[in-house]
């Protein structure tokens, strides 16, 4: 291949350039083209950086020795029909917010998103967040000093077993919780914080019955919220943080509450 | 069985890496890999000739998606994902560099997998197309979107407009 490949440079050439998949002739052509197109060159450089950072971040995993339990010889033992277990470990960290109380909330139509919270439950959760997250002295009613008292208290008040999501993997520690009036029933609000003092709340209550829903995103000024419904419960996580981080929290909570509930059957 | 170990085990480090990127939890990732390997062992007699790596990665991804569907029943709404990438200034981000895995986690799964398989696993575009069972053109458009979102997430480039570039066959 000579350096005089007549075909114009395309976006797929740029991807292949980033990924090192061009033959030398074509690569020279792309390099020459990039020299004359600084904006595209900046994009290519950025894509390279993303690629390098991803590889560096994940490289240690592949360099570890293979765990014994993943050796083929150890797996090929007779038909131990095991149900897929990976999600149960996701859920194993603990928790369940099976909150009691009759459901006063009927699911509305889907919230237009993204935008200001228009769905009543999200509004209630964001209001509660704004009210209590600024509290220095009494952000929570019951502190999580070992969290068993908190769990017992919530369980007693809600007349249902309650455990609490572990969000350590997301960088949040449990501060405690409080109960809030919500229609005919009660809502539970758990509060977490991280090392930087960012506070996060998980608001949950019964209703609507059945069904599952997508995560809904809402933002009101500097406060972001994800809400969803699952198996008769509604959840809202709220924080002043970026959406990607909050979404990870929502996914972690969801994995834990749904896993725990299924596991508890 | 020895054949099987000789062929499959060299792929295990990469399978663990992909599973870790999908799940972000090491223990859960190894459970997913174990599930994948068990499935592969059972399906081995029915396996057709072809790219072994693509076959294994496809099993892992399908097990992952199946687990997500069955256990959680919740998918991230499109609107949420769009918002994440358009979030603009982020007060928290000013305090330190963002974790590139957070950016990956915020992508729709189909874009996340394409970017991981291309950029981290060094698969050819055709191989990625085989894993995802989609045409190569779809792989390229997902790759393009994934990279645009990652640039925005990591604030690496002010624009992701590429309209002036011509696409070629």
UniProtKB/TrEMBL annotation, chain A:
<keyword id="KW-1133">Transmembrane helix</keyword>
<keyword id="KW-0472">Membrane</keyword>
<feature type="transmembrane region" description="Helical">
    <location>
        <begin position="86"/>
        <end position="106"/>
    </location>
</feature>
<keyword id="KW-0812">Transmembrane</keyword>
<protein>
    <submittedName>
        <fullName>Anti-sigma factor RsiW</fullName>
    </submittedName>
</protein>
UniProtKB/TrEMBL annotation, chain B:
<comment type="similarity">
    <text>Belongs to the sigma-70 factor family. ECF subfamily.</text>
</comment>
<feature type="domain" description="RNA polymerase sigma factor 70 region 4 type 2">
    <location>
        <begin position="100"/>
        <end position="150"/>
    </location>
</feature>
<dbReference type="InterPro" id="IPR053866">
    <property type="entry name" value="PhyR_sigma2"/>
</dbReference>
<keyword id="KW-0805">Transcription regulation</keyword>
<dbReference type="InterPro" id="IPR036388">
    <property type="entry name" value="WH-like_DNA-bd_sf"/>
</dbReference>
<dbReference type="InterPro" id="IPR013325">
    <property type="entry name" value="RNA_pol_sigma_r2"/>
</dbReference>
<dbReference type="InterPro" id="IPR039425">
    <property type="entry name" value="RNA_pol_sigma-70-like"/>
</dbReference>
<protein>
    <submittedName>
        <fullName>RNA polymerase sigma-70 factor (ECF subfamily)</fullName>
    </submittedName>
</protein>
<dbReference type="InterPro" id="IPR014284">
    <property type="entry name" value="RNA_pol_sigma-70_dom"/>
</dbReference>
<dbReference type="Pfam" id="PF08281">
    <property type="entry name" value="Sigma70_r4_2"/>
</dbReference>
<keyword id="KW-0804">Transcription</keyword>
<dbReference type="Pfam" id="PF22029">
    <property type="entry name" value="PhyR_sigma2"/>
</dbReference>
<feature type="domain" description="PhyR sigma2">
    <location>
        <begin position="8"/>
        <end position="60"/>
    </location>
</feature>
<keyword id="KW-0731">Sigma factor</keyword>
<dbReference type="InterPro" id="IPR013249">
    <property type="entry name" value="RNA_pol_sigma70_r4_t2"/>
</dbReference>
<dbReference type="InterPro" id="IPR013324">
    <property type="entry name" value="RNA_pol_sigma_r3/r4-like"/>
</dbReference>
């Amino acid at each position: 291949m000579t350096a005089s490949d007549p075909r114009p440079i395309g976006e797929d050439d740029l991807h292949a350039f980033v990924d090192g998949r061009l033959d030398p002739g074509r690569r020279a052509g792309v390099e020459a083209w990039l020299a004359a197109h600084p904006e595209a060159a900046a994009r290519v450089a950025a894509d390279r950086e993303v690629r390098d950072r991803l590889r560096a971040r994940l490289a240690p995993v592949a360099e570890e020795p293979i765990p014994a339990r993943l050796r083929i010889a150890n797996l090929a033992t007779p038909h131990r029909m095991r149900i897929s277990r990976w999600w149960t470990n996701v859920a194993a960290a603990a928790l369940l917010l099976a909150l009691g109380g009759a459901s006063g909330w009927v699911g509305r139509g889907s919230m237009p998103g993204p935008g200001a919270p228009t769905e009543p439950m999200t509004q209630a959760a964001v209001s509660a967040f704004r009210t209590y997250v600024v509290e220095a002295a009494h952000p929570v009613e019951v502190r999580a000093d070992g969290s068993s008292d908190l769990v017992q208290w919530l369980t007693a008040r809600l007349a249902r077993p309650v455990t609490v999501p572990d969000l350590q993997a997301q960088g949040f520690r449990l501060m405690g919780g409080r109960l809030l009036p919500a229609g005919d029933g009660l809502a539970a609000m758990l509060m977490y914080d991280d090392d930087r003092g960012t506070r996060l709340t998980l608001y949950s209550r019964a209703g609507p019955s059945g069904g599952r829903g997508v995560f809904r995103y809402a933002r009101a000024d500097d406060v972001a919220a994800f809400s969803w419904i699952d198996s008769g419960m509604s959840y809202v996580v709220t924080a002043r943080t970026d959406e990607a981080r909050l979404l990870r929290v929502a996914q972690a909570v969801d994995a834990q509450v749904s896993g725990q509930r299924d596991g508890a059957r | 069985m020895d054949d099987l170990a000789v062929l499959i085990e060299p792929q295990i480090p990469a399978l663990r890496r992909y599973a870790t990127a999908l799940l972000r939890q090491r223990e859960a990732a190894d459970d997913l890999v174990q599930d994948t390997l068990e499935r592969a062992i059972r399906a081995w007699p029915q396996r057709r000739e072809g790219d072994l790596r693509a076959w294994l990665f496809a099993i892992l991804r399908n097990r992952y998606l199946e687990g997500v569907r069955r256990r959680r029943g919740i998918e991230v709404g499109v609107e949420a994902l769009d918002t994440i990438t358009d979030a603009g200034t982020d007060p928290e981000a000013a305090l330190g560099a963002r974790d590139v895995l957070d950016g990956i986690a915020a992508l729709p799964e189909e874009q996340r997998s394409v970017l991981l398989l291309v950029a981290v696993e060094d698969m050819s575009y055709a191989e990625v197309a085989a894993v995802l069972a989609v045409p190569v053109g779809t792989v390229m458009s997902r790759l393009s979107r994934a990279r645009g979102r990652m640039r925005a997430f990591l604030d690496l480039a002010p624009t992701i407009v590429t309209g002036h570039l011509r696409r070629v066959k």
